[in-house]
């Protein structure tokens, strides 16, 4: 077992223990466990985590492991797993379900394979724009001074070193507010980065909706679209990514019903 898997298992065990402690219950009283986990996309992933859970709970307990998109969707539809959910935080994914159990997904393949509408994607494009401007391969941008100041760096060369010093994707994604601030201040490069991210997120939703036929044959049937994640919750700013994504989607699907969950979601991994 890798160090990452050991850490994940320990986290799951701690979460289960905390949940039981808070409700004053014991493992022997549990009848079923459903764990919705980010990054669980294949049967091998599910079986691995199911094995961990079997070591924690008695044999009579029913165990279910799904992608966290299931929980995110249910958080906005009062438990009904039907419709589409768009998650855009550090990463991004669109996931949809029909009432008869069919499902489809788009994006969610991770930063290397291009979750470009995600927080990581937005910030990575911001960093790239700084390097391009420094080289003379791209236009000058306010992102250069803003990102360097935010990180306490003195030069683009130092920025390159900072970028590759540590690889956790959330570290890069934390720069999204800087890109948004520059876009709101009129920086064309930052503005285009956000516009491109809107198109990426909207296209993921469109792909899922069309594959599942959630919009009906005429494209006008009603379906819920649950929107979750920090990138989509930036509606306190003038540059509202979530609102722009919704505008793009509603042009294609007039029956879309946007939902921002009032229930908090804890993303385990």
TrEMBL record:
<dbReference type="InterPro" id="IPR052519">
    <property type="entry name" value="Euk-type_GlcNAc_Kinase"/>
</dbReference>
<dbReference type="InterPro" id="IPR043129">
    <property type="entry name" value="ATPase_NBD"/>
</dbReference>
<dbReference type="GO" id="GO:0047931">
    <property type="term" value="F:glucosamine kinase activity"/>
</dbReference>
<dbReference type="GO" id="GO:0045127">
    <property type="term" value="F:N-acetylglucosamine kinase activity"/>
</dbReference>
<feature type="domain" description="ATPase BadF/BadG/BcrA/BcrD type">
    <location>
        <begin position="4"/>
        <end position="246"/>
    </location>
</feature>
<comment type="similarity">
    <text>Belongs to the eukaryotic-type N-acetylglucosamine kinase family.</text>
</comment>
<dbReference type="InterPro" id="IPR002731">
    <property type="entry name" value="ATPase_BadF"/>
</dbReference>
<protein>
    <recommendedName>
        <fullName>N-acetyl-D-glucosamine kinase</fullName>
        <ecNumber>2.7.1.59</ecNumber>
    </recommendedName>
</protein>
<dbReference type="Pfam" id="PF01869">
    <property type="entry name" value="BcrAD_BadFG"/>
</dbReference>
């Amino acid at each position: 077992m890798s160090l990452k898997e050991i850490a994940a298992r320990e986290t799951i065990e701690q979460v289960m223990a905390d949940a039981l402690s808070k409700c004053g219950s014991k493992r022997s009283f549990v009848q079923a466990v459903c764990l919705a986990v980010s990054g669980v996309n294949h049967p091998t992933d599910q079986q691995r985590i199911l094995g961990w859970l079997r070591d924690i709970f008695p044999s009579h307990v029913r165990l279910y492991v799904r992608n966290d998109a299931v929980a995110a969707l249910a958080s906005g539809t009062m438990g009904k797993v039907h419709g589409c959910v768009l998650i855009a935080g550090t990463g991004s994914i669109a996931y949809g379900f029909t009432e008869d159990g069919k499902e489809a997904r788009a994006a969610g393949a991770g930063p290397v394979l291009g979750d470009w509408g995600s927080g990581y994607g937005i910030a990575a494009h911001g960093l790239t724009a700084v390097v391009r401007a420094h080289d003379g391969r791209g236009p000058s941008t306010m992102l250069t001074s803003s990102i360097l100041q935010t990180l306490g760096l003195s030069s683009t060369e130092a920025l390159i070193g900072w970028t590759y010093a540590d690889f956790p994707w959330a570290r890069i994604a934390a720069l999204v507010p800087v890109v948004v601030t520059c876009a709101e201040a009129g920086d064309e490069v930052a503005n285009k980065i956000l516009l491109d991210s809107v198109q990426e997120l909207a296209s993921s939703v469109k792909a899922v909706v069309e594959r599942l036929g959630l919009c009906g044959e005429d494209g006008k049937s009603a379906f819920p679209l649950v929107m979750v994640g920090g990138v989509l919750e930036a509606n306190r700013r003038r540059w509202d990514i979530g609102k722009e994504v919704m505008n793009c989607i509603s042009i294609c699907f007039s029956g879309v019903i946007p939902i921002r969950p009032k229930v908090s979601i804890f993303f385990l991994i």
